[in-house]
Design goal:
By secondary structure, the protein is of the alpha+beta class. The chain has eleven helices and ten strands. The chain has two domains: 89 residues; 233 residues, Bira Bifunctional Protein, Domain 2 (BirA Bifunctional Protein, domain 2), CATH 3.30.930. The chain has a seven-stranded mixed beta sheet, sandwiched between helices. Strands 2-4-3 form a three-stranded antiparallel beta sheet. Helix 1 packs parallel to helix 4, helix 2 packs antiparallel against helix 4 and helix 5 crosses helix 10. The chain binds adenosine-5'-[phenylalaninyl-phosphate]. Adenosine-5'-[phenylalaninyl-phosphate] binds next to strand 6, strand 8, strand 9, strand 10 and helix 10.
Length: 344
């Protein structure tokens, strides 16, 4: 019996060394370690052996089983690994190859500047909200002291969605100022809000004008708000965004919904006041319109103008971005040219 077990072991190991695939290995396992294998029968037949042989044969049969089992597992591991190698094409991996860069997205320069503007005003206590791009005639014009026959409507070349004769006509907002009305209708003073958003005008485009651009509206209403608060707030804003050394010009301007009204311009970065195509040879680029909220506008929104006063402003984000980064044409922003956009 021990000789038979020796013979079985050497045959099994010889055959195992010739096995090259997992299906063949499985056949080998069934043949030598399976329930019907000679080794399993030998182990089962131990009980019928004479007592003096049982111990020695049992020990030998067990050692054969352990050896076959161990070699089988080693082979299984080796064949499984080589299977993985084959499935990845048998090619060796060059661990020195640099990884492929993963392209990262970034925020559009206009979005970055809107965030910067809002954070400057947030530091001064303003809340940030947004409002609808499709507006009613009432909010865009009427409530802002611009009735149907008012010549100031010509300042805002409007994209109408309904007939403009209709008093409830919808339009694409020409400025963010309608949000002044919506805020004052919904909230009671004291108020401090900024409203970033898209605006639309049916205008020919040039280096500083586009038909779609962004504005940030600002509104502060409280008791005792004066023109001095307005100027200090806007000068502080200009210092934060453009630095202390950039020239800022404050002049009177007319908007029907403020009294008095003004505009702020920044020294042209390109010609430093000498005059160029970008600033229309004036040396300045206008960035915002502003003024003290008109008493009639306050009253229309249910705010008593004998108690409260306020200031408002509306700034052009593309103009500010042009000045901030020295961009020579507003139309670059929406050209979709990655060579331009990747610089920000
Ligand atoms: C207005 O839109 C007023 N609503 C601003 C205002 C608000 C005045 C509150 C008083 C109180 P204006 O049309 O000037 O004003 O536009 C404001 C700013 O938007 C301009 O200073 C400019 O920076 C920007 N802007 C105007 N038109 C264009 C355009 N076509 N393309 C790019 N930016 C523009």
């Amino acid at each position: 019996m021990p000789q038979e077990l020796d013979q079985l072991e050497s045959t099994a190991l010889l055959e195992l060394s010739a096995v090259e695939t997992l299906p063949h290995l499985e056949e080998w396992r069934v043949r030598y370690l399976g329930k019907k294998s000679a080794l399993t029968s030998a182990l089962r037949g131990l009980a019928s052996l004479p007592a003096d042989q049982r111990k020695a044969v049992g020990a030998r049969a067990n050692s054969v089983k352990i050896r076959l089992q161990t070699d089988y597992e080693a082979k299984l591991h080796a064949l499984s690994l080589s299977g993985i190698d084959e499935s990845i094409g048998g090619a060796s991996i060059d661990v020195t190859l640099p990884g492929r860069p993963v392209p990262l997205g970034r925020l559009h320069p206009i979005t970055q500047v809107i965030q910067e503007i809002c954070s400057v005003f947030a530091r001064m206590g303003f809340q940030v909200i947004d409002g609808p791009e499709v507006e009613r005639d009432y909010y865009n014009f009427e409530a802002l002291n611009i009735p149907q026959d008012h010549p100031a409507r010509d300042m805002f070349a409007t994209l109408w969605l309904d007939s403009k004769e209709d008093r409830a006509a919808r339009l694409l907002r020409t400025h963010t100022s309608p949000m002044q009305i919506r805020i004052m209708e919904e909230h009671k003073p004291p108020l401090r809000f900024v409203v970033p958003g898209r605006t639309y005008r049916y205008e020919a485009t040039d280096a500083t004008h586009d038909w779609m651009f962004h504005q940030v509206e600002g509104l502060a209403v409280d008791t005792d708000i004066t023109l001095r608060d307005l100027k200090e707030t806007l000068f502080e804003f200009c210092r934060s965004v453009f630095g202390r050394d950039t020239g800022v010009r404050f002049r009177c301007d007319y908007f029907p919904f403020v009294e008095p009204g003004g505009e702020v311009a920044i020294e042209c970065f390109q010609c430093k006041g000498g005059g160029c195509r970008l600033c229309g040879s004036t040396g300045w680029l206008e960035i915002l319109g502003t003024g003290m909220v008109h008493p009639d506008v306050l009253a229309r929104c249910g705010i008593d103008p004998s108690v409260y006063s306020g200031f408002a402003f509306g700034m052009g984000v593309e103009r500010i971005t042009i000045l901030r980064y020295g961009v020579d044409d507003i139309r670059h922003f929406y050209s979709g040219d990655f060579r331009f956009l990747r610089q920000f």
